[in-house]
Amino acid sequence: MPICELCQALVILPGDIIFIYQTSRRLKMETTIARQSLATPASPAGAVLRKPSNPLLKSTRPLQAARLEGKAICASLSTSVNAAAVAERPVSARPAEVDTTKTPKQLGFTMPGEFEPHVGCWMGWPESDDSKYLWREGGQPARQAYANVAKAISQFEPLFMIANPGEPAANARRVFSDSPNVTVVEIPINDGWTRDWGPSCIARDVDGHREVAGVHWDYDCYGAPGKIAQGRPAMMPNWDKDVAAGRALLTTNGLPVFEAPLHLEGGSIHSDGQGTLVVTEECLLDPSRNPHLDKAGIENILKEYLGLEKIIWLWRGMEGDTEVVNGHVDNMCCFIRPGVVALAWSDNEDDPQHEVGVRNLEILNSTTDARGRKLEVVKVHCPPPLFRTYKEAAGVDPEHITKGYCPRLPGVRMPATYINHYAANGGVVVPQFGGAAAETDRLAIETLQKAYGDSYKVVGVKSREVLLNAGNIHCITQQHVAGW
């Protein structure tokens, strides 16, 4: 029986069920076919399941996958998801074989849109020596929020939770013991901002197949060296594990790695999958990031490493996203699908966010994408301004500032937005804030459900604990793009 590389499709017969035993290290799978009907529940009576022969396989919890009419899927999903809709999504790893001394664009790669099929989603478990200096109460409330986000995403696609080896990984496994579509993978990390230190998957079509590779950015923790030199606050004093983890996510999945000569975070870019990228000037032109490059130089590297034809430069990101992150676009604007973007919006003319939204809207309305289309803009109203409370600020270790971590002070506005959501296979997971934001919470779900359409199920997850550290759901997730 062939080995599946998360999750290379097997040629099986109608009526077969494949039981996949997944590793917690090398992310490979062994399979056994049980001659049963696809309508039969998982682990049917009489099915003979062999234990994995590979000693590295720590987990023997079976996941299901199936091939229907030649279309492979990863289908260990909640019964609440429409299986017929998922079956239309071809999913496998299908790594490319490439010469990584050339640029991805030279080899025909481009960055897919987030709305395109995924093998699964990567997240990072926020439990490390840094946690008490980044999160309140040692990170426990944040870990609960991460768990809620992960479980919501796992309704729609496999979720791979990266955790520090030892006690953090063991704790994560206990949290997800009731979540069969969440797998804990042991890789050392500093913290759980997987979108930002993680790789960006790229793909190309070759003879009817989609091949996948990855771009590993020269992540420097939001321009931390430059900020420290300028006397500005940095996120944290050390990020070496995160840099290595970003590359490890590609190598452990057998994906070719393109090392990009650019200090960048994944939250600062959004792609339409057809050659267009949206970014903000506030972030990419911040002097802490790449002071040796001008706008044209940054644009050239992005085009070469993400296979782009056009970059749309918005003015600024969200208010409250200025201290360290500097206006990531994933708080402000994202592609729903090619030709359609969602934009964070405020009608309150007394709020600086209104001015930012108006100017960004003018930019979007006055441009076209790489294929010459005018963009349809969906306004997603922001919650009312939200601020860090005294109690929340006091919960962070009092030495966090003197030890080189970003000050988390009371009364500071936080970048609350619904744009910072994650689009999974057939599902969208959206931040919810509660309290004074209850009405905009409801409207955001309604607006995004209409924008994404009936093929997606939009769900909300309370995520203020993530927001306390200036990010949200999109910031803590990263898609593993599918090939076929």
TrEMBL record:
One Pfam family hit: PAD_porph
Statement: the UniProt record of this protein carries the keyword Transcription: no
Residues in the signal sequence: none
Keywords, in A-Z order: Hydrolase
Family matches, as SUPFAM superfamilies: Pentein
Source domain of life: Eukaryota
Gene3D superfamilies, per the entry: L-arginine/glycine Amidinotransferase, Chain A
Hydrolase in keyword set: yes
InterPro entries referenced in this protein's UniProt entry, alphabetically: Agmatine_deiminase, Peptidyl-Arg-deiminase_porph
Protein name (Swiss-Prot/TrEMBL): Agmatine deiminase
